[in-house]
From TrEMBL, chains A, B:
Transmembrane spans: none
UniProt domain D-isomer specific 2-hydroxyacid dehydrogenase NAD-binding: residue ranges: 119-292
Lineage: superkingdom: Bacteria
CDD domains: 2-Hacid_dh_1
Keywords, sorted A to Z: NAD, Oxidoreductase
InterPro entries linked to this entry: D-isomer_DH_NAD-bd, NAD(P)-bd_dom_sf
Protein name: D-2-hydroxyacid dehydrogenase
Length: 330, 330
């Protein structure tokens, strides 16, 4: 099978190298028949795409090359696109995607890193770290005591790779975890799982709330001003989903009024966030620049192992678990 | 047995209440014979101390009342002092302490909280949080990626209640932990343990270093400029011991030069730290105001359970595990 790997041209974070490819084949010897080509520029893409059966690339490249249509003319043999990002909301709606081309996301690559980031954010909030960060800038000694996580109530919205990993870490620390996802199907790390339409019923108990769902039409603006009001006073929020999943201004208002105790967010609108944006300076808000789920030391290795597992299952006639379902949106 | 509980007069953090006492007796019914009195002022202390056989109080009170000598005249029946702090370095040397009075520290109360704080600090450093805190203040979007903890090398100096708890949490996340303590006695969370005189041999491998030892003459200035130079470039430091265990200025210099990547400290000289102190503004330094090990929700309950376990062992003719050994210094 002809595989083309199109690395990003401008951004040089995490380019997939021939050495990483060779190491992945050594770990997955049943994939030895794959014939890869590598490029990072237009000429390399043009030379390879006509023959490529599988394309490995980044959301940005897929968006630039295909989102206006014309995939079949450009890439007649293409049957699979492996997009090495977790959230492909930027590519939705998927009208540009022919039915006989499978779009794979990179769900799973980010789990270990995101689980650690999510746990860190919970511990930071339990220990008032956003408050201390701001006190430090003022040179102000302002003790407040924190509490251990054990026994405290956490609601995790989204139990996919990211949210599931956070729920598992939180449960290891004795938190009482309620999960929220499309259906109320149980999850091993959760004391209970409710369907998304029951979200309002669990918010009043959420001492901690983690947003880890994909951005879809259903989740856009999910944590709005009304739902923020359902949270108990002193609630603490973590957002590793997308900035548009919560109402940013309503969150800032709730921090300023003291209804919320603190927040850690890795995602925001817009990204990159410009100087002077309200999120930078809201009391109790800690901002990280969209790095929660990406570990350069393991990213490409994990990604290739996940791709190869999908190809292995496809050879066996099974569904590829990372295939995006366009009408679901992820 | 007559027990006097002297709560702090000025500071009202964590006063031990009759309700907490009653709850602790319910958990420890074999302690029902103890007769408590409670006070927070001079008059209450004066009224009770002459008859008290056991005094429960804070470092500050012990220091103010006894450190100049005269304990026997003031408290002729006193046989045990339970000091509800972990580090009693402020009371050293212990010349004021008669041989027939046992001074108990509160080792163990702080373990769960300190373990979580230590893990949080390691995750914060792995995720460049001190750097992002400072970037946020400047309103600057400055992405850097972090890595999971698994496989990374950690040295923990001090394997008592605090350091042991951090080592256990770190090992749960797959870190390769080396412990340092008075003897090379093994510890279940550590891949290896070396004696303190071999500290220099393990520093060159320490990607992360946690200080969690008591402050004694031997540990004062332990992490000096020379030893900081033995750490690998990019090392990350956590201090939950005492500010005097490291050379603060040398640490700040090493952060400014880039030799160290970041540091989280809960302890410093002096405390409280005044505005304008260098630690507030050193790049890569994150300061918390001495709150790492104290959880108001569990503190007094844990403390009383630990005291009662010591009394139980004493009744059985055994050593009290929390008894301070004056010549050791903790």
């Amino acid at each position: 099978m002809r595989i083309h790997i199109q690395n990003p041209e401008a951004e040089s974070i995490f380019p997939l190298t021939p050495e990483q490819w060779a190491a992945a084949l050594a770990r997955n010897p049943d994939m030895a028949g794959l014939q890869p080509s590598f490029a990072h520029d237009d000429a390399g893409f043009a030379a390879a795409i006509g023959e490529a059966e599988l394309l490995i690339t980044w959301t940005k490249v897929v968006h630039a090359r295909f989102s206006q249509g014309g995939l079949k003319a450009l890439a007649p043999k293409l049957r699979t696109i492996f997009c090495t990002s977790a959230g492909l909301d930027r590519l939705a709606p998927f009208a540009w995607l022919p039915d006989d081309v499978a779009l794979l996301n990179n769900r799973g690559t980010h789990a270990a890193k995101a689980g650690e980031f999510g746990l860190m954010a919970l511990l930071m909030l339990a220990n008032h770290i956003p408050f201390f960060a701001q006190a430090q800038q003022r040179g102000e000694w302002a003790p407040r005591f924190g509490s251990v996580l054990a026994g405290r109530k956490l609601v995790v919205v989204g139990l996919g790779s990211l949210g599931g990993a956070v729920a598992e870490r939180a449960a290891q620390f004795g938190m009482v975890v309620t999960g929220v996802r499309n259906t109320a199907r149980p999850h091993p790390a959760c004391r209970q799982v409710v369907a998304q339409d029951a979200l309002d019923t669990v918010l009043p108990e959420a001492e901690f709330l983690v947003l880890a769902c994909p951005l879809t039409p259903e989740t856009t603006g999910l944590l709005d001003r009304r739902r923020l009001g359902l949270l108990p006073k002193g609630a603490k929020l973590v957002n590793i989903a997308r900035g548009a999943v919560w109402d940013q201004d309503a969150v800032c208002d709730a921090l300023e009024s003291g209804h919320l105790d603190g927040a850690v967010t890795d995602v925001m609108v817009p990204e990159p966030m410009p100087p002077g944006h309200r999120l930078w300076s809201t009391p109790g808000m800690f901002v990280t620049p969209h790095m929660s789920a990406d570990d350069p030391n393991t990213y490409n290795d994990n990604s290739l192992d996940i791709l190869f597992q999908n190809l292995r299952l496809a050879r066996q006639g099974q569904e590829m678990p990372n295939r995006v379902i366009p009408k679901r949106g992820y």
